[in-house]
Automatic annotation (TrEMBL):
Assigned EC number: 5.1.3.1
Active site: D34 (proton acceptor), D174 (proton donor)
Domain of life: Bacteria
Keyword Ribonucleoprotein among record annotations: no
Protein's name in the database: Ribulose-phosphate 3-epimerase
Enzyme class: isomerase
Pathway of action: Carbohydrate degradation
Length: 215
């Protein structure tokens, strides 16, 4: 059974408290917070004030995914805003080891996200330091995109590395996740499913989360 991290990028921003309280009452394990700066990705979502507002009402840990350039500048602020985990992009961090150590010093769980074109082998020398590896199954920047099929093979390779060396990081997948692909993703080794549109666009989001969890 996978853990579920609904992405509030797909929530109703005019009723954000309502949607966070719905997630509190659901079987979701985390609340996924997608932060976009309009530079690293071609979209702007929200920043520290919204994260802080979500945290005020959240009873689930905030899984904060920073799709931003130079994330080191904002790590402490997002930790103060309630982040339990801070995930940065491999592609945005020229000194990734230092960034991961800083996240640890702040007391957050360190994660690294990989864009679809970036191989899991790129993380080989830092996997032992990570709590989470996030595999992007769409190109980051917009919700509601179509799932990239190569993701299954990518997850399987990462899972083999984890098993071979006895690492403890969790594997998370974000982008186009739904009931059609959840079971196969779990079979390949995914621990956490991020779901946005498939949850919030459902007639019954609580049930949608439950169905994903029991995939």
């Amino acid at each position: 059974m996978a853990e579920i991290a609904p992405s509030i990028l797909a929530a109703d921003f005019a009723n954000l408290q309502r949607d966070v309280e719905m997630l509190n009452a659901s079987s979701a394990d985390y609340i996924h917070v997608d932060v976009m700066d309009g530079m690293f990705v071609p979209n702007i979502s929200f920043g520290i004030p919204v994260c802080k507002a979500v945290y005020k009402h959240a009873k689930k840990p905030l899984d904060v995914h920073l799709m931003i350039e130079q994330p080191d500048r904002y790590l402490a602020d997002f930790k103060k805003a309630g982040a339990a985990g801070l995930t940065v992009h491999f592609e945005a961090c020229p000194n990734l080891h230092r960034t991961i150590q800083y996240i640890k010093e702040l007391g957050a769980a360190p994660g690294v996200a990989l864009n679809p074109h970036t191989s899991v082998e790129s993380l080989f020398d830092i996997l032992s330091d990570l709590s989470l590896v996030l595999i992007m199954s769409v190109n980051p920047g917009f919700g509601g995109q179509e799932f990239i099929e190569n993701t299954y093979q990518k997850v399987a390779r990462l899972n083999r590395l984890r098993e071979k060396f006895g690492y403890s990081f969790k594997i998370e997948v974000d982008g186009g996740v739904n009931l059609d692909n959840a079971q196969l993703l779990i079979r390949e080794g995914v621990d956490i499913l991020v779901a946005g549109s498939s949850v919030f666009n459902s007639p019954d989001p609580v049930q949608a989360i439950e169905l994903l969890k029991n995939s």
